[in-house]
């Protein structure tokens, strides 16, 4: 008997609602063999995070070696990476074992608002980890932090010098983010032709902002992007707007588009495909009136990884994951005194 395998690299939640506990429950629901590498121990519950203890990066590396040298995962879900040393270890493991189907939920803060990542660590994540991923799944607050960090990176003269020294025409591979900030752009538009297109998206306040942010992140970081719209305030009370932005080379079937139209919720996804160009997909569905959403990001990214492990296209994996998490929230599990967990 053979079973598809998925590895989660993330923190531990003793209350069972998020982190590796939520990941493994999701993997069981999708009938894949789940494995875990723990990056941090947290003291948290439905009310919030009271303490975090990072696992030594050397021990994270030993965990990765133990798993990857024996059981090759069909997909990997990455969650909380609390410091740069651990990020470096994960990047090396992805390269060494040629891991495919990497889904990253860039956990920058908890559902309750506790900050879980430093700005310097986020910059490394953007520069080195994102490009190794098949898909990243930030929510709107995380997108705003990522865009801000990209702006800071592009202001760094050493970054510009590095780009110039690569032998490419720097000015022809820039796009304005705001009046003073540029980001590298593989489309190769001439900067003179887009000087008037000056956009500042410090806050995501519209679907147009989501689309622009997805393009900036995908183009700068070299990965497909799913922007989760559950935190949006501009979509109305009855909808949740998510945007999917697809990268080059992703397997694509037009039939997949038939399954992403759902009532009153919208996720946007964008992909850049070889010979296909950018693809943007708005995933729609109904916003559920339930405040018990602890671990939704962990669950969604794990569910997508399960779909990829089973050979689904990103669109199909995302649609199945969306259906699953909608059902999990709809069950209305009521545990704890704060934002409760999902019914996996």
Question: How would you summarize the topology of this molecule?
Answer:
Elements: E1 5-12, H1 19-29, E2 33-45, E3 48-54, H2 57-68, E4 75-78, H3 84-96, E5 102-104, H4 119-129, E6 135-136, H5 140-155, H6 157-165, E7 174-176, E8 182-184, H7 207-221, E9 224-227, E10 242-246, E11 267-273, E12 277-283, H8 296-309, H9 314-330
Parallel strand pairs: 1-2, 1-4, 4-5, 5-6, 6-9, 10-11
Antiparallel strand pairs: 2-3, 7-8, 9-11, 11-12
Helix pairs in contact: 1-8, 2-3, 3-4, 4-5, 5-7, 8-9
Tags for this model:
344 residues, alpha/beta, UDP-N-acetylmuramoyl-L-alanine:D-glutamate ligase, ten-stranded mixed sheet, two-stranded antiparallel sheet, 9 helices, globular
General description of the model:
With 344 residues, the chain is of the alpha/beta class. The chain has one domain: UDP-N-acetylmuramoyl-L-alanine:D-glutamate ligase. The protein is 34% helix and 19% strand. The chain has nine helices and twelve strands. The protein is globular and about 45 Å long. The two termini are 25 Å apart. Residues 162-199 and 251-266 have low confidence and may be disordered.
Unreliable stretches covering 5 or more consecutive residues: 162-199, 251-266
Number of β-strand runs: 12
General shape: globular
Tell me the CATH superfamily: Ribokinase
Average per-residue pLDDT, rounded, comes to 78
- What is the rounded Rg? 19 Å
Reported for the largest beta sheet, the result is: 10 strands, mixed
How does CATH name the architecture?
3-Layer(aba) Sandwich
Q: How many angstroms does the end-to-end distance come to?
A: 25 Å
The helicity comes to: 25-40%
Strand content: 15-25%
Number of domains: 1
Order of helices and strands: EHEEHEHEHEHHEEHEEEEHH
